[in-house]
Write a structure and sequence with these properties.
The complex is a heterodimer of chains A (239) and B (345). By secondary structure, chain A is of the alpha/beta class. Helices cover 41% and strands 25% of the residues of chain A. In chain A, the strands form 2 sheets. A 6-stranded mixed β-sheet of chain A has the order 6-7-8-3-9-10, with helices on both faces. In chain A, strands 2-1-4-5 form a 4-stranded antiparallel β-sheet, covered by helices on one side. The N and C termini of chain A lie far apart (35 Å). The radius of gyration of chain B is 21 Å and the shape is globular. Chain B contains 15 helices and no strands. The longest helix of chain B is centred in the N-terminal third of the chain and has 27 residues. Chain B has a domain of 215 residues. In chain B, helix 9 crosses helix 11, helix 12 crosses helix 14 and helix 13 packs across helix 15. Classes of the chains: A alpha/beta (239), B mainly alpha (345). The interface between A and B is medium-sized, with 28 and 21 residues. Bound molecules: adenosine-5'-triphosphate and magnesium ion. The site of magnesium ion has 3 residues of chain A, from helix 1.
Chain lengths: 239, 345
């Protein structure tokens, strides 16, 4: 359960988020909206990279904004980035291990078990010792995903994980996202421009437009909403 | 006896298999390591007194450059205070010996630790700044040290906190490095230990944190890395290693002089670290040689040693434009190409 209250962010004259208030409770929640709608900005507020002018975010009865960014990660907040952040000169396992380093997972064997579980889950178990630089786009996205899944995640934020992937890869990604709740016990917030992806994975969906909450509700209804079509899907068709 | 050995080996290969596989010792690296080891054994007796000293100080500045490389190659940070920190380590080591007469190694570690703390303090602005502004702050630190030490000089056995006497008392060499030959071997061993210590950091938690910070601070924070802490750790480690170099320099010469540690030397050593190559130990060896042996060599063949600066300038341009991993990077890349071609045939 995440309660976002009156969150506003402005960059100079641009209102990136305008008094956003919404309660998120489903296991996978979509965030959609046209380019520049404020989707990444919302994730940045979660992560602590952007401090909102006002407002609060409570997640599982914790005041998220009161913690410093790295403490949020330790608390259980995880995220992937719109441009993936796999480190080229670390091995796949070390990329994931770096996430566990600062978490209170005590025993070495438990760490290794979690790394193995996450890598197996994203089907990279054979690549553990390869360098990040040896991976293709899909594998890099999967390493980033695996990173979000170790160390008891509570909230996983995914910023366009499907960008630049081929169709069959997107299918695999879809299955991977759907299993996160059951396998790792985390709630997922998913930003994506791919409406099919959102429809297939998200139980409810938030629609942002110029920093405003345009609509929120069950995904199927949201995607039928005329205002949403006009603001978002219409633009997609026009492109 | 044999059984025991086998048991130990099979266990050690079974357990940390992953971490070893992650960092393979490549054949070129191994070959180079062996040849350097051979050089250390063979070369010292062949050198004349002058070159023995030149090589000792080359190795000492290789050690100092190792610290620069931690910040530059691992964190992408520029520190222009390293030679000043060498001076801090030297100052503390001399002060310690004159005050306590403890064995050199104890004084060296004390000097290194204090130099590490000073390095961390100079690096504190790095938690907020980067690039040019950070470089300028560290340069101001170096200039500050230059002014202080020119005013007070290094301790040489006198009274009081500053310990200045009219006639210098020389600090003796460490027991294992009394002759110049022995001292050369001594500094080489310490250099290897320093490189290994940095390598240990790189392959464990700090190294992973540094890699994430270099990728992007957002990525590091999202991974739970305390960015400020691990940057400070990098500065402390670089300062610690500078302090070791300072202690060795003090031991080699017995006394230190303020004119050895102007801020300009810090800039030069940084530039040469980029030219030599900050990304592996071979580059650091080259850095030490360029910094101390190249000017001596030029003098020897009758060329004004200051010409070295012109050559260094050209080298720096070359490195910045075409060889971001320095001369060492180019050599290792060439070796790799060679072995590949041979395998291909
Ligand atoms: N750090 C920043 N500085 C200034 N303006 C910013 C910054 N970050 C975002 N913005 C602006 O805020 C608005 C929202 O940006 P945001 O990145 O959140 O959009 P988005 O919904 O993620 O878009 P996209 O689909 O293109 O990723 C845009 O107008 C953007 O230019
Ligand atoms: Mg975005």
């Amino acid at each position: 359960m995440i309660a976002i209250r009156d969150v506003s962010v402005s960059f100079g004259g641009v209102l990136a988020l305008n008094n956003l208030t919404v309660n998120l409770a489903d296991s996978v929640v979509g965030i959609i909206g046209p380019n520049g709608a404020g989707k990444t900005t919302l994730l940045n507020v979660f992560s602590g990279f952007v401090t909102p002018a006002c407002g609060s975010i409570r997640a599982f009865d914790t005041d998220l904004l009161a913690m410093r960014p790295h403490q949020r990660a330790r608390w259980g907040l995880r995220r992937s980035f719109q441009t993936e952040q796999v480190v080229d000169d670390l091995s796949v396992a070390d990329n994931v291990r770096a996430m566990l380093d600062s978490l209170p997972v005590t025993s070495r064997s438990e760490r290794e078990r979690q790394i193995e579980k996450a890598l197996t889950y994203v089907q990279l178990e054979g690549k553990a010792d390869e360098l990040g630089s040896a991976l293709n786009t899909y594998q890099r996205r999967m390493v980033e995903l695996a990173k979000t899944l170790v160390g008891s995640p509570r909230i996983v934020l995914l910023d366009e994980p499907g960008a630049g992937l081929r169709e069959e890869e997107v299918d695999a990604l879809r299955q991977t996202i759907l299993g996160i709740g059951e396998q790792f016990g985390a709630m997922t917030l998913l930003i994506d421009h791919d409406v099919e992806m959102i429809a297939a994975t998200c139980i409810s969906t938030v629609v942002l437009d110029f920093g405003e909450l345009l609509a929120f509700g069950p995904t199927a209804e949201i995607l039928k909403d005329d205002r949403v079509k006009a603001a978002y899907l219409g633009i997609e068709e026009a492109e | 006896m044999t059984e025991e050995k086998i048991a130990v080996t099979s266990e050690s290969t079974a357990l940390p298999r992953k971490s070893f596989a992650t960092f393979p010792v490549t054949r070129p690296t191994l070959a180079l390591l062996l040849s350097v080891a051979a050089l250390i054994l063979i070369v010292p007796p062949l050198l004349d007194a002058l070159y023995l000293r030149v090589f000792i100080s080359s190795v000492i500045f290789t050690i100092a450059a190792t610290g620069i490389a931690v910040l530059y190659a691992r964190l992408g940070l520029v520190s222009l205070a390293q030679v000043a920190l060498v001076g801090v380590g030297g100052w503390v080591t001399l002060r310690m010996w004159h005050a306590t007469g403890l064995p050199f190694e104890v004084n060296m570690l004390t000097g290194a630790m204090i130099s590490g703390v000073v390095g961390m303090l100079i690096g504190l602005p790095a938690l907020r700044m980067r690039g040019l502004f950070l470089a300028l702050i560290t340069l101001m630190g170096a200039a500050g040290f230059q002014i202080l030490v020119t005013g007070t000089q290094f301790p040489n056995g006198g009274e009081g906190v500053l310990g200045i006497a009219v006639t210098s008392i020389f600090m003796p060499r460490p027991v294992l490095g009394e002759s110049d030959e022995a001292m050369l071997r001594y500094v080489c061993v310490v250099a290897v230990l320093c490189v290994l210590f940095v390598e240990l950091n790189r392959r464990t938690r700090p190294g992973r944190a540094w890699a994430l910070i270099r990728k992007s601070e957002a990525c590091a924070m999202a991974s739970g890395v305390n960015v400020a802490f691990y940057k400070a750790w990098g500065f402390a480690l670089a300062g610690f290693i500078a302090g070791i170099a300072g202690a060795l320099l003090a031991a080699t010469l017995g006394v230190l002089d303020a004119t050895t540690f102007p801020a300009s030397e810090s800039i030069l050593l940084f530039a040469l670290t980029v030219v030599g190559g900050a990304y592996n130990w071979l580059g650091l060896v080259l850095t030490g040689l360029l910094f101390r042996a190249a000017p001596a060599l030029l003098n020897d063949i009758g060329v004004n040693g200051h010409l070295a600066y012109v050559i260094f300038g050209a080298g720096l341009l070359h490195a910045l434009i075409t060889a971001p991993t320095g001369i060492a990077g180019q050599i290792l890349e060439g070796l790799k190409q060679l072995t590949k071609r041979r395998v291909g045939r």
